Amino acid sequence: MSLELISILDKDGLAQKGKDPNLPAAELQKLYRLMVATRALDDRGLALQRQGRIGFYLQSTGQEASHIGAAYALKDSDWLFPAYRQPGILLLRDVPLYKIIAEWFGNSGDTSKGRQMPVHYSFREANFVSISSPIGTQLTHAAGAGMAATIRGDDTVFMSFCGDGGTSSNDFHTGLNFAAVYKAPVVFVCENNGWAISVPCSRQTASESMAIKAEAYGMPGVRVDGNDILAVYRVCKEAVDRARKGEGPTLVETVTYRIASHSSSDDAARYRDAKEFDAWKKKDPIGRFQLYLKHKKLWNEAFEKDCVETSKAAIQEAVTKAEALPMLPPETMFDDVFMNVTPQLKEQRQQLHDLMEKGGVGADVGAFPL
Amino acid sequence: MTATDTKTSTAKTGTKVMTLLEAITDAMRHEMKHDDRVIVFGEDVGKKGGVFGATMGLFDEFGEKRCFDTPLSECGIIGTAIGMAVYGLRPVAEIQFLDFIYPAFDQIVSEAAKMRYRSGGEYTCPMVIRSPYGGGIRGGHYHSQSSEAYFCHTPGLKVVIPSTPADAKGLLIASIRDEDPVMFLEPKRIYRHAKGEVPLGEHVVPLGKARLAREGTDVTVLCYGSMVSVCEQAADEAQKAGRSVEILDLRTLVPLDEAAVIESVKKTGRCVIAYEAPKTCGYGAELAAIVAEKCIEWLEGPVIRVAGFDTPFPYALEHLYMPDAKRVAAGIEKTFVW
User: Fold this and answer.
1) Inside any domain, residue B108
2) Considering only residues 88 to 117 of chain A, which have any Cβ-Cβ distance to chain B shorter than 8 Å?
3) What pTM did the predictor assign?
4) Inside any domain, residue A192
């Protein structure tokens, strides 16, 4: 069997006959704004890293349709177990920009208290569960949370993300298997962007697609054009509805491309073919959605200007606010290991305090080794 | 009583003689009755009631939603438990043998242990991982290991090991009520050998408090789990040579009741540490370092570790591998004559 690549937008930006989800005009424009803002946020994040003001950054450029379209299919009360390339979901869920940016600075404005590298967000206010770097682990958490919701009789749906590299992880197998066995209300979104740092997708699997793997787990697998926000939304909405009705999990493979390097520490030009890159650049998800809006008379130059300038101004304001926030007090290092600070941690905290007071220990910290 | 209280709390509803295994079942039943967030799952824990019988009767009493079997995947058992805990349940996950826990190691050390810290306290992971550990049942090296040190070395995990039926119940209840992930390691060798009076109903033994198993004046023996009864026999042996032995059952390796350790060693001036795990980098190394750092002026002899050897756990020669009373007694004597 072979899975069809589902798409809605054709190359001219028109919806294929009978497939347009016909979202209200205001919603379509909101989605466009979110995509533009997400890219602007990414551009700013990388720039701050290059300026040495933050230590690291990881872009989602080219994947805006894939993750925003997927999460748009959820209710706000639904939960996300994300990977590290879905920042647009935070904007979709109205997390204040300065809180997102404070996470990059790892200062006192960071809700996760400077405990992680940039872009490893945690926002309970958005039901966006803490991101970790090990690949795929969140897939099994989503299965467990889905099982818990079933046990409690809640109608929450859980969406978890991974990349093409993530499909090779233990937890891809484990998470999908558990979710299917217990019919957990989970939508697994594999954003297949072609590359796991420098390793191409062909080295992750000999399967013809990622979506086809769903068959073996006993769940539906859907392959969708990941640069087509309407198509991603439509297949994810169907998957979310199935999950909410108690019909179990779905694997959605969004076929997309990582336009940027893996991270600020990587240079994709060293291992990637320029032709492949150029071909994908032409399929830019923002450009394709813009054409669609233009046909609908929902986009013009003035709207574009407003989208770009509004998001840039908001980001600038947020960067200024976030960067000015004070560093975390040293003693916070010892908090949240456990609910209560243990006697051992109390003693170590005191030792650090004394060394700082008397010996000037730690006086020259703060600079990033670039 | 909450998990943060520091004193043992017991309902005055009488006691019953139970094995350590029965006390563990009793603790889970008690918690499942009183908190519907508590669920129990793992391999063969449902209808069968567990390969050792620790979950016997829970499936019948609470139904499949609260006590169920899982696919054969330790990574999945722990990974889903984390998702459940983050979402608001109180999962009690059984890993059939501690030797099989390694596929779940990433989930335990990278995820469960770090969830509270890395999310700045926004998400927490209140869950218990129960697993039988240790040798003495002719289980070979895949049914006998004592790998507690790996977990003690991971900030964010609590590590609890009971040695008596009453403690098994009280510590397990405290672990289930704890707001952080707890590794609850059960000494399988004494699952059925250890028998004792166990309070019926509510019985909570706080984490982080050692138990003075025997008072003595000449030498302190630090131990936990199945080594406690071995050390008691060794103390009887040493008594014949006129050595008065104090035995401290640590109960909780993380957080350690360091104050009790220091107080005892300062009193006796000598220290033996007995544990079943391989000697090198075992938990005893940490205890020895604490004693060296904090009791040096009081020590009258070398700190001695009596432990398993640095070999994989041997099947046929397990009786020689595991420290017995004679080996512990020899260790005690070494703190006097060196």
Assistant:
1) yes
2) 110-113, 115-116
3) 0.97
4) yes
